[in-house]
Design brief:
The complex is a heterodimer. By secondary structure, chain A is mainly α. Chain A contains 10 helices and no strands. Chain B has 10 helices and 14 strands. The chains are: A mainly alpha, B alpha/beta. Chain B: InterPro entries: AAA+_ATPase, ABC_transporter-like_ATP-bd, ABC_transporter-like_CS, ABC_transporter_ATP-binding, P-loop_NTPase.
Chain lengths: ~260, ~300
């Protein structure tokens, strides 16, 4: 428990900043919604002048963008992008802080098992992501309610919102695995930005060329927002792949961590 | 009773040298020095004992329990001070120490304040604002706050000023009198000489010898220096029991001698002396002597007993 609390404390600031940013983005986008809804036809006309590739890359679905959920799922791609960066930072940082700050010796010479250390850290990551998403969900929902003209499918709304959480879990797990492999990552941000943008671009590219196979390679596409909107459900296959990625990354990361030699200066 | 036992402990890192076949033990209540030059494998040994790294072969036990299998249990009673102290930078000293204390099921508040006062450490500073020496103090308090039965220190005095070193050694002696066993590594021999009951000497990953400090000193080595009126051939003193002959301009000669003191006196009487000094050699010289002996053996020249 003490390690869990310690991790939360250490990450408190960054959690607040990220939560605030995500909330700010959703507030900003939703506050634009009334004007888009009002001048919907014109907005669609403008969009129709765009090349199809650009629209696909940006994740714009013309026929639904003026509906509340359509608009939400449009800008939610960017929420997921931010969320992924937060999660990856968190996943990498939670261990590499020990490696680069040479605090591994501190924690490893305490009367705790390595398994105990890793579990505390993973639960801290989970807790931070849960808190971030809960705050985001409340803010998002309040904003949606405030700007909605017609009623919208609440279940779909929640499923879309929760997609961020699952994408974050995947990136946090990947980050965790990467950080066990390379313990001394001194600057976490460039690494996580690199990885996240790589996946994001794969996702954009896949949308543009309409390549189905590329969907498997980017967690961003495991949650197909138009699909969720339409069916009020996730796609079981991708949910399964996502769960497998998390399980393998976390499992392998834990095993490596337990077996690893921690070298000094 | 042995608190620490190393049994053919070996750690290899790919190509580079680790430690090879280290066997020795530390008795309860002992202050045990672990000494060797930089890179000899001192830290590797200590880190293996604490299962920060795992042995390649061989084993080690602390309080009679295997260090790998019972690591967490053993560590309840261990205080460790790493050679380089880099703790969570953004924390205050106070918070770090309380965090450290939270791992042990006892109230350490009073002890933290006592130790901080003794070591003259400001508890309210942030760790990244501290100097190297002050970080070291944090490490020391952190290692002692739970009253461990075994204290393991890796190069403990680096960065501490002489006065602080004095205080620190007093602290260690007090802990020792309360029953704590102490194992510490160093490359500074005077430290070891002052503190330890026994030492293990390590070189290039191999254990050279384990000796009582008193035996090391009592080995009846004398350091003899002479000044002569006219230059003499230093070879004159190349007799049984003489090592490390050094000659300066032919008329100032020094060497180590062990053996019948009368024999060397007779030899000395053969030359016209201006001055004569006979000293107990310090550990450093004995130590170098050990190293040289090893080298000599390596070259298959019969070693002198």
């Amino acid at each position: 428990m003490n390690m869990f609390r310690h991790e939360l404390r250490e990450n408190r600031r960054s959690m607040m900043i990220w939560t605030f940013s995500l909330a700010a983005v959703t507030v900003l986008f939703f506050s634009m919604y009334p004007s888009i809804e009002k001048d919907g036809d014109q907005f669609i006309k403008v969009l129709q002048n765009y090349p199809e590739g650009v629209l696909k890359a940006l994740g714009v679905q013309i026929n639904s963008i003026t509906s509340l959920l359509g608009f939400y799922s449009y800008f939610f791609l960017y929420i997921m992008l931010c969320g992924a960066i937060q999660a990856m930072n968190l996943g990498i940082g939670i261990l590499s802080k020990e490696g680069s700050g040479k605090t591994a010796e501190f924690i490893l010479t305490k009367p705790v098992t390595r398994g105990g250390i890793i579990i505390s850290k993973l639960f801290a990551v989970l807790a931070i992501l849960v808190i971030t998403n809960l705050v985001f969900l409340v803010v998002s929902y309040a904003m949606a309610r405030a700007v909605a003209v017609n009623d919208f499918d609440i279940r779909a709304f929640f499923l879309i919102s929760a997609a961020n959480f699952f994408v974050q879990l995947m990136f946090a797990a990947l980050g965790f695995f990467v950080s066990v492999l390379f313990l001394r990552i001194r600057s976490v941000l460039p690494v996580s930005l690199g990885v996240v943008f790589a996946f994001f671009i794969i996702g954009m590219f896949g949308s543009v060329i309409g390549d189905k196979a590329s969907r498997y390679f980017t967690p961003f596409k495991y949650f197909n927002l138009p699909y969720i909107m339409k069916h009020s459900a996730y796609e079981p296959l991708y949910l399964g792949i996502g769960a497998a990625i998390i399980a393998v990354s976390v499992g392998a990361g834990c095993l490596l961590f337990i077996k690893k030699d921690f070298h000094g200066a | 009773m042995n608190v620490i036992e190393l049994n053919q402990l070996t750690k290899r890192y790919g190509q580079s040298r680790g430690i090879e076949d280290i066997t020795f033990s530390v008795k309860e209540g002992e202050i045990f020095g672990f000494i060797g030059p930089n890179g000899a494998g001192k830290s590797t040994t200590l880190r293996t004992l604490l299962s920060i790294i795992y042995p390649t072969s061989g084993s080690a036990s602390i309080f009679g329990k295997d260090v790998v299998a019972y690591g967490p249990e053993i560590k309840k009673q261990i205080g460790y001070l790493p050679s380089e102290v880099f703790y969570y930078d953004k924390m205050k000293v106070k918070d770090l120490l309380h965090y450290s204390a939270s791992f042990y099921k006892k109230d350490c508040k009073k002890r933290i304040h006592e130790l901080a006062e003794r070591m003259d450490l400001d508890l309210n500073k942030r760790i990244d604002d501290l100097s190297y020496g002050n970080r070291k103090k944090v490490g020391i308090v952190q290692g002692l706050l739970h009253g461990p039965k075994l204290i393991i220190l890796d190069e403990p005095t680096g960065g501490l000023d002489p006065l602080m070193q004095q205080t620190f050694f007093e602290l260690l002696k007090e802990e020792n009198q309360k029953g704590a066993t102490i194992l510490f590594s160093s490359h500074i021999l005077s430290e070891v000489q002052k503190m330890c009951d026994r030492v293990a000497i390590i070189k290039e990953g191999k254990l050279i010898t384990v000796e009582k400090i008193s035996t090391l000193k009592e080995r009846n080595h004398k350091k003899i220096r002479i000044e002569t009126r006219v230059p003499v051939d230093a070879g004159l003193f190349a007799m049984d029991g003489v090592t490390k002959i050094e000659s300066e301009e032919g008329n100032r000669i020094s060497f180590l001698y062990s053996g019948d003191i009368n024999l060397i006196m007779r030899r000395l009487a053969e030359v016209q002396l201006v001055n004569l000094w006979v000293d107990e050699p310090d550990l450093e010289e004995i130590f170098l002597h050990y190293y040289e002996k090893e080298d000599v053996q390596d070259e298959h020249v019969p070693a002198r007993a």
